[in-house]
Amino acid sequence: MSTVTDKTPAAAPPGRNGSGDGLLQLMLDGMRRNMRQYGMLIALGLIVALFAVWTDGDLLLPRNVSNLVLQNSYILILAIGMMLVIIAGHIDLSVGSLTAFVGSMAAVFMVRNDIPWPLAVVLCLLVGAIAGAVQGWFIAYGGIPSFIVTLAGMLTFRGLTEIFLEGQTLGPFPKGLQKVANGFMPEVGPETNYHNLTLLLGLALIGLVVLQEVRDRRRQKEFALDVLPAKLFLLKLVALASAVLVVTMLLASYKGAPIVLLILGALLVGFGYVMRNAVIGRHIYAIGGNLPAAKLSGVRDKKVTFLVFLNMGMLAALAGLVFAARFNAASPKAGLNFELEAIAAAFIGGASMAGGVGTVLGAIIGGLVLGVLNNGMNLVGIGTDWQQVIKGLVLLAAVGFDVWNKRKVGS
Fold first, then answer.
1. Cα–Cα distance measured from residue 33 to residue 363, given in angstroms and rounded to the nearest whole number
2. How far apart are CA 123 and CA 331, in angstroms?
3. Which residues lie below 8 Å from residue 177, measured CB to CB, with a gap of 6+?
């Protein structure tokens, strides 16, 4: 007895017929797959829009945008290093105190001993690297948890700051160092209503962003990975280019791009490349994501952990120099709660408590979320007490979103 097989073609699944509904479904699928990547970026845009309306446009005044960069530069520098530490599965509670300690050393070098500021900067970075290396050695080779080691470092560096400054504020710093933290790119070219170098820099950055996104998409397709639909990818490029163009025009209509923004840009590009393409970057993700598997794969986890904390020490030193130069003095109370701001920026930017997850760009986005919140709440007159409450709730919401997203993906 023969069996008759039904050859009637199955109905096409809803939303996959190439119509407008199908494109919308593809866009939604792409957003869901990249929710961790886009969630905080969308949140940052909503926060900016909210405070732009609430402050009657004062938030987006060119002068305020420049101040926003200058006021949060040292936190963003710390957030980059902290993101690497958290990806590796550790934490660093000492960066605020180390920032203050390096600032005090800078004052001792430049103010008390008249050491030329470029040489003093190198010495301060070396001090930060040594401090990070010492902590990294105890964590990586001594087997002491990072929480304990960096907690001890927080107390030690804060005490050393008090000792070196003798409980007093010490300054001023040389003009050259002040320009690094407070200065702007020089004006060149014909007289226009905008800063010419900033415009050229912004156009170059747009080209670089588009080129990098196209290269990443091509590489993902070569490895048969999921990519965004073509129209959604084009929409992403337009959105990124528009955002860079708006910021460029705002900065160019005031005094141009701050010098510290160029430093942040170099750090973002450099560390972003390392974490995406270099072997050490893959190893950092590996030891944070699955340490036993990383060891079996031949990853030298102790060396990687040591280098991560050495790097954190250097970035904390750089942040200390920028902070001290911005306020033109070294203070025993400098750096208070900086470690909490940096940790919060990393988690808001997509880091995971379990390690192995996060991006350098995410750290910058998380720091900007906090910076815009601080700036916007100050403009509308919200008190510092409520500001702390709101930032705490934002951090809780970001981590809660991460946990929810993991559970949803797991299910």
1. 20
2. 19
3. 106, 110, 117, 121, 321, 325
Model confidence over 330-358: pLDDT tens digits?
Answer: 999 998 889 999 999 999 888 888 889 88
Q: What is the DSSP letter of 381?
A: T
Could you tell me the two tokens for 210? 């588009």
Compute CA distances 48 → 40, 259, 347, 371, whole Å.
12, 23, 19, 10
pLDDT, one tens digit per residue, over 67-91 is 999 999 999 999 999 999 999 999 9
As a whole number of angstroms, the distance between CA 205 and CA 139 comes to 39
pLDDT of residue 277: 87
Q: SS3 breakdown of the chain: % helix, strand, coil, rounded to 5?
A: 75, 0, 25
pTM: 0.88
How far CA 130 is from CA of 66, 119, 304, 339, in Å, comes to: 33, 17, 16, 19
CA distance 411 to 406: 9
Give Dmax (Cα) for the chain: 103
- For tokens 């958290």, the residue is 86
Give pLDDT, residue 30: 54
Segment (H or E) for 70: helix 62-87
Average pLDDT over residues 83-106: 95
